TrEMBL record:
The protein's name in its UniProt record: Amylo-alpha-16-glucosidase
InterPro entries: 6-hairpin_glycosidase_sf, 6hp_glycosidase-like_sf, GDE_N_bis, MGH1-like_GH
Alphabetical GO biological process terms: carbohydrate metabolic process
Signal peptide, first to last residue: none
Pfam families assigned: GDE_N_bis, MGH1-like_GH
Highest taxon, organism lineage: Bacteria
Domain Mannosylglycerate hydrolase MGH1-like glycoside hydrolase span(s) in chain numbering: 414-651
Gene3D superfamilies: 1.50.10.10
Stretches assigned to the Putative glycogen debranching enzyme N-terminal domain: 44-261
Amino acid sequence: MTPDLLITQEKISLDGKTFIPAEQLPMPEWPRVVSERPQPTLTVKDDDLFLVTDTIGNISGCSLNEGNPSMGLFCCDTRFLNRLELQIEGRSPILLGSTAEKGFSLSVLCTNPRIDDRLKADNIGIRREIVLNGALFEEIEISNYSTTTVSFELSISFDADFVDLFEVRGYGRDNRGKLLRLVEPKPEDGTTWNGDSGGSVSLHAETHKAEFLTLAYQGLDGLVMESRIQFQHRLPDYFKGYTAVWQLELATHETLKIGYRINLLTNNTSSSTVSAAFTLGQAKAAELMEEQNWVQQITRISSDKSILNHIIDRAEQDMYLLRQSFGKYKTVSAGVPWFSTLFGRDSIITASQTLILNSQIAKETLLLLAAYQGKTEDEWREEEPGKILHELRLGEMARCQEIPHTPYYGTVDATPLWLMLYGEYYIWTHDHETLEQLWPNAIAAMDWIDFHLQATGYLSYYRKSKRGLTNQGWKDSGDCIVDRKGDLANGSIALCEVQAYVYSAKIRLAEIARMKKRLDLADRWQEEARNLKMRFNRDFWIEDQDFCALALDGEGKQVDSVTSNPGHCLQLGIFTPEKAYSVAERLRAPDMFNGWGIRTLSSLSPAYNPMGYHIGSVWPHDNSLIAMGLRSLGLIDQALELFQGIFDMTSQQPYQRPPELFCGYERNGDNAPVQYPVACTPQAWATGSVFQLLQMIVNLVPDAQNNCLRIIDPALPESINQLSFHNLRVGTTILDLEFERSGNTTACRVAKKRGNLRVVIEA
């Protein structure tokens, strides 16, 4: 149902509510408590909502130009809250402890500072709990631990700038919409505000005893967005602007509770796809029930080492948290805070990494991306028939065509990666219905690839959209495609790993075509794969470095830097054996392997920067893909070394959660891995790397179509003696596997099996 929206020059009426431009009704501001130093943050997420606060649970009025710009409450790429600040007598509480361990909620315990002679320090206990579930809920318990009755003022300041996430990230805008004030009919006490229209409305600047506060904004596209705050338990005694104030008097050891719920609205309908509960208790129960349903569906993995179990448990929970609804499908968003949306490449790689955990992620990812598959030629969005999208955005800048993300298709690798996942998913599940349903999409994707192979024999990219990405592989920053001199490559870029993805896609799709009795397609794709392999080993090989080039530039010249990209090729079979082993050996040299993982760029390169996003940092997912390649070559010890480095790094992270990336500084003695300042966490393919690395060490090779699971030469590292997989699904069979290491050998036992799957253990 379309909301009743009426716009005049002076006011906006929406379903019985009246708004006026904010500049017509100035609001008093409650002073902020400003920290001199950058604050650590807490992050919570529920489906399409996420919240980033400081460690006390506050957002101290962050703006685009100060503070931590990533703080706020976000939904659909819009910041619905940029201030959420609890104060006691105008001062910030003193933190005792806080955690966002559960992922969808955070809890904070704090106390009061000394307040003149009226309130001694540490006499008031303040316990905050914030939960996301289609809305934001907070309950605050305030306890008096002194021996006398105390009186003090507690306040919570709210504000919302409704800025687009791309604006938060630094994208400039020439124009913005306008902030609004909700106005009410003239109240009984006679307090009025007389606007230019001459109408009488309540001042709404300092009022008493109210249940609601409303923050609002009208975008350039006309949509009205609101953060509607409903207070629960004890109502505020008065409001000063958008600050709720309680005058509290607590007897000794008395506890009272205040709370509120924030609903996010767009044109008076919920902005979130999740139906919001009414109370925090109901929200928490709904989240715990959904999480429990998730846990029952996944493979549960455990070991004899507590730190590894913490890492696995965290990764299982983060995969649950990162799931996000897009229409009727639910897939994994790329990462919080910057990439909490649908991506092609990220979602596909994560789905592949987690087939061992839950194949439903892969199924819904395939179906969702197929629904968005390119259908027309659109240079602004870089859409083409058959092409798989790069990124979908829902914010005001996308809606107003200021960015092309509606969706944006500027990615060279998502299409072959989609085809690879299409084949992998079938190998794990034997889901013939989905295979058939997506076959036309697979043909369209391969047609797109083949069309772009015609010019040079390689799949390359070149930006067409003026607001698109310059680089369109997984290393998509502007400074990362460099040659051995550190100079940027020019023209159309053909990345080495993308050619390996194309090779693998053709091999896998040929097998499916043969199964479908399409021998014409099977033979053609196999022949094309053979020819691609021959060209690739000739054109990409750097003879004097005995290594593979990062790419070929627009003139067909090698971009001859030493990078991690060729490591993605190792498990896909495009290298000749001798070249594969040469790449594997070079990746483990000290200029590439820093002790925690393999760098994105050699430290010997003139362009190397250990703090560079793609020019010297270390990415967990990059390393898990390389580890799979080393394993496929039989280089088990080298693969286990990578496993150990990434898990050692992860064990030192907050909540034992692998970050999107970390700095490339050398591991020396007891030094900790150096954090990348703005890495996403949780982040999808970093989380997925946990499961891919576990899959690597036990080396499961499913073949659900032939009702078989091969376990080839499993090898637990020295840090693990036992590893078990419960509720593992291959085809229609559910089984439990137990691995145990004795010396240099690892034994496998099928502890339980429901189904007739053949399990073949090959040592």
